[in-house]
Design a protein that fits this description.
about 210 residues, alpha+beta, Cyclic Phosphodiesterase, Chain: A, four-stranded antiparallel sheet, 11 strands
Amino acid sequence: MIFRLAHNPTWLQIVSYAGLNMRAFIALRLPENILSSINKIQEDLKQYRLPVRWVRPENIHLTLKFFGNISESDTEIIGIAMGDCKGSCLPLILSAKGIGVFPSVARPRIIWAGLSGQIPLLLSFQDTLEKRLEKSGFKKEERPFKGHLTIGRLKDRVNNARLIEAIRKHKDFNTDLFDAGEIILFKSDLLPEGPVYTELLNVPLTQKE
């Protein structure tokens, strides 16, 4: 079954999942050539024998808002909020650049690829989206937004010297520029073999008329 909101049927189509609660997030999708470049870095990093669970290339994305569990009715509200933001920003021009870890080298949990390009526009757009969702009843994220691409998760204690060496070697990593022209609401299913992300709806970024 597909929901089509009557006031704006041209872009908003929400896949129904029979009223079940679902984990969901809003993200920018990456083009295949960018995912391929990131995958090459992942393969190179494997030689350092770090205890990392690597994110499958097709699952790498730029998260703008993580909701946790939402209901089917929430997807309609989120879709409207996303639509309200679609004219606030042109398609963003970005690239992946460098790698690092969260929260720190001393206690690493996430390996990420950074971003370059129209970062001020990205920050402004994410803030607009966050505020619009807050007005719609969704809790505002208290931590400041730090745009990044998660490429791996540390599973165990790590050799810090080896990790620092890996980061230094790839500090100049940089992909081609790409256009991020739509925002997407994804459903996330956590399976034993890893998460599966399903697109629920997408909204194009367009210039204000």
